[in-house]
Specification:
Glutaredoxin; 24% strand; alpha+beta
Length: 103
């Protein structure tokens, strides 16, 4: 099942070296960019998607969120549906959720 993380390339985070840093931290994921993900009120935006799973869009992401993004990606990989009973392990990332889109 392909797993993709997409950074908004119109946002600051998607224009620097963070893409490579995130990709190096999660070698089993495809990390890419997409021009304007319409999260302009909460830049920088990052999306997590996998076939048949709930997709997530997060905003207000900074380089300081790297560890939380990696933690989320690993838990997401292990979840058969992409949903979680308890979001507390994701710390402040759970407050940065913009959308959860059913798979």
């Amino acid at each position: 099942m392909p797993k993709t993380i997409t950074l908004c390339s119109a946002c600051e985070l998607g224009q620097g070296s963070f893409l490579q840093t995130l990709a190096a931290s999660l070698p089993d994921w495809t990390v890419t960019t997409k021009e304007c993900m319409s999260g302009c009120r909460r830049p920088s935006t990052v999306a997590f998607r996998a076939t048949g799973k709930t997709a997530y869009l997060f905003g207000d992401i900074s380089e300081g969120d790297l560890d939380l993004l990696v933690r989320f990606a690993r838990a997401y990989s292990l979840s058969s549906t992409g949903e979680f009973d308890d979001a507390r392990p994701f710390g402040k990332l759970r407050d940065k959720a913009i959308a959860r889109i059913p798979g």
